[in-house]
Amino acid sequence: MEILSVTGPASIQDLGRFDQYRFGVGTSGAMDEVALRAGNILLGNDENAAAIEIPMMPFKLRFGRDMAFALTGAGVEAEIAGRPIPPWWRSHARAGDVLTIKAMSRGARLYLAVGGGIDVPMILGSRSTQFRGEFGGWHGRPLQAGDTLPCASSTAAIDELGIEPADITLARPDAAADQTIVRVVIAGEYDAFDAATQALFWSGRWKITPQSNRYGYRLQGPDMKPKAPVEKRSHGIVPGVIQIPPNGQPIIQMRDAQTSGGYPKIATVIRADLWRVGQARLGSELRFEQTAYTDALAAEAEMSTYLDRLRTNVRLVEELRACR
Amino acid sequence: MTVTDRPRISLLGTSALLFEAPGAFDLPHQRRIWALAATASKWPGIREAIPGITNMMLTFETPPRELDTLIAALNDGWDAAEGLAIGGREIRLPVTYGGEVGSQLQSVAEHCNLSIDDVVAIHAAPLYTVFALGSHPGYCYLGGMDPRITMPRRQTPLQRSAGGSVSIGGSQTGVSASPGPSGWHAIGHTNWTFFDPTWPAPAALAPGDTIRFEIERVIR
């Protein structure tokens, strides 16, 4: 399929590259893991199959042959050959059909998955784009108009099928409009901040600044200064870690983050909520909610249950259709 | 042993854990970290054991249900760890100090109350040991910097710093392997390939290797 037009850094991502930290290689991977998995489940793909992550609209591409595709993640206004496509939907394209995505009304990243997945080479265990290392994905770089991406052949069913978006099924209580509440586990330097500053962290409404991207989300809010300056020896960090640099404004490390750092860490966004950060829009607000390690594991189990249900439902629909 | 002599163990959410050794930022402590990492990387449920600077991150294949057993194993492992001396190769890296990329050379000199020539001479004097890889693909954290040229990290990290930058962050120094964000102060630059995903081991250097900086040029 050929990219006709693209705005902003769209890239090829799978679930990520997880066992190369010792070489300084971070995870990369989809900012919204749930949406990527859901798109692949809809298509009967391996859940780690690579898809296109699209952070900005408009976006347009032409399918080179007949194939199934799915749109998950952000809510968008999309059309295939002039026909509107609902959110979190699987559909079928004919060779030559043009997919047009105009506007993003909800969320921050759309996933376009195709039957069989985007067939770029597996490098160091993943097809995800490593921007800093300039490898993986499509030549290690964001997609450009004119790129023609190879797709694996697929025998997936091609009937239309939709599922409920994860942000509705897994909605968190008490979140105001344009506000995302994420659960965090406190990290090593939490106690380097006095009680009043810790309280500011929990009560603060953290605005997502325009300097936020796949590397990290830079937040703006109350001034978070530790009791005394903290200079850590460099150590490993993972996506979700919230650092407080000396300017007192938090940075949430995201999927393209460095694999190590030395700024004090106040907390870490739990894996079950990291996708919510990935779908939080620039200019909107984040709030942090403290969670114990065991509750964070329970939240992951809840996310897995949602995905299990999705797998079952999609399989049941296929079986029903096969019976008819 | 007092409480402060014990390692610090803290969580990085549910996907990883950080082990910080007590004591100095020196080669003997780092060798114990290498030994502990070699042991811990074989434990069940552990994806990788990644040495940092006198610390180690464990990433989980599966997050442990309860952490007490793992924490005890780490503490015991540290107490039992004999220094692992990794024999390495020695790399000579020609460095242009100062100039556009090394624009913080003057600031480091001022901060440390030294002349530019002093900072360059002090920085290029030691034989540095690669303590750990991290940050970005192929990047090496080096041990052995003279504390006289210590400078705290930036108040706000830069969104883009050049590839090949030779930088100081706190009491550490290193060379960036590619362009990207950085909270460190660049004092020079070098041209060398640290990483290639097509190599059998993608990073050119490994913990235990050594680097000597050669003063190619100083731009004031």
From TrEMBL, chain B:
Keywords: ATP-binding, Hydrolase, Nucleotide-binding
Biased composition (Polar residues): 158-176
Domain named Carboxyltransferase: residues: 7-205
Organism classification: Bacteria, Pseudomonadati, Pseudomonadota, Alphaproteobacteria, Hyphomicrobiales
One Pfam family linked to the record: CT_C_D
GO molecular function, a single term: ATP binding
Top-level taxon of origin: Bacteria
Disordered, as annotated region: 158-181
Protein name: Allophanate hydrolase
SUPFAM superfamilies reported for this sequence: Cyclophilin-like (SSF50891), PH0987 N-terminal domain-like (SSF160467)
